[in-house]
């Protein structure tokens, strides 16, 4: 549950500072699914989740934007890194709505809503090992 809260807090902090939107709509149970995958990937590590650093990104139109860096336990030297990539939902109506309102008299008070896809990418990189990276595609 703590990991789910960390992910949700990251999105909440990023919405106005890095994403420039007023709302981020997250599919039901997305953060729980990601947390389960993170826990599974950390289960084979010497320090478990405590040795993890998560780089959180958002992919919008094939461009990755860095949102935040989550250090699971700052008292432990990280043994592996995870790169989490949220993906934007491809909804043509939201793009049309944003275009329409940004050109008219409503633009000053309008802030866009970002809708996340249920898909994500999680890449594990061991920091002190010769073993390669692990990639998980969630859908």
UniProtKB/TrEMBL annotation:
GO aspect biological process, one term: negative regulation of signal transduction
The keyword Cytoplasm is annotated on this UniProt entry: yes
Record Gene3D superfamilies: RTP801-like
Keywords annotated in UniProt: Cytoplasm
Domain of life: Eukaryota
Pfam family, one: RTP801_C
Compartments in which it is found: Cytoplasm
One GO location term (cellular component): cytoplasm
Principal location class: cytoplasm
Family: Belongs to the DDIT4 family.
Functional summary from the UniProt entry: Inhibits cell growth by regulating the TOR signaling pathway upstream of the TSC1-TSC2 complex and downstream of AKT1.
Protein's recorded name: DNA damage-inducible transcript 4-like protein
Lineage: Eukaryota, Metazoa, Chordata, Craniata, Vertebrata
